[in-house]
Design a protein that fits this description.
With about 200 residues, this protein is mainly α. The chain is built from 5 helices and no strands. The chain starts with a helix and ends in an 8-residue tail after the last helix.
Length: about 200
């Protein structure tokens, strides 16, 4: 049996198949990580937008007085934001940043991606609350550019999320196919989760 050429041909075929299947699984895992990189970049830009929004609000100045305004200058009317809502927005932004950092270090871990998805939902809800509950003269004019930028970022994030979901679907489908499932089990490849 060991000297049979047919046996060695079958061994060679199995070895080359295993090598090809392993390379395919590795390539699919890499495509998920690359797709996460695009989502990561867009989420970092969204967090920067919220930091910019917070800085522009000039929370260190008194009510109705922009930073650098003296008592002799007439006060400028600004929209009134509920301090609790702004604090919630800061907290949601911080949570998003922390979840993003964990997901960045483990882009294939289901728990990390689930936490990122939850943080994104909380941030969306908090932003919508801040925007809809802004009060005062000119609130809609002040918030219009921020809302436009927010929606632009979300459109880009949604496209990147579609790409990572597609890549994760291909990865998971490959892992669940029979012969590749054995290799995935041997090498510890696990199913991923989309956003």
């Amino acid at each position: 049996m060991w000297s049979s050429p047919l046996f060695w041909i079958l061994v060679a075929i199995m070895l080359f198949w295993a090598l090809g299947a392993y390379n395919r699984l590795t390539r699919l895992r890499s495509s998920v990580v690359q797709a996460f990189g695009a989502v990561d970049a867009h989420l970092v830009r969204l967090i920067a937008l919220l930091g910019e929004f917070d800085a522009v609000q000039g929370h260190s100045a008194g009510p109705g007085m922009p930073s650098g305004c003296t008592d002799t200058a007439p006060p400028v009317q600004r929209p009134v934001f509920d301090p609790a809502k702004i604090a919630a927005l800061r907290g949601a932004t911080t949570q998003m940043g922390a979840s993003l950092a964990v997901a960045r270090s483990q882009p294939l871990q289901r728990d990390a991606l689930a936490a990122l998805t939850a943080a994104r939902s909380v941030l969306d809800a908090t932003w919508r609350t801040v925007v809809t509950e802004a009060d005062g003269p000119g609130a809609s004019e002040v918030l219009a550019p921020w809302s436009i930028r927010w929606e632009e970022h979300h459109a880009q994030i949604d496209l990147a999320v579609q790409v990572i979901n597609h890549a994760a679907g291909q990865h998971d489908a490959a892992i669940h196919q029979f012969p590749a499932r054995v290799l995935a089990w041997i090498f510890g490849f696990k199913a991923t989760k989309g956003l």
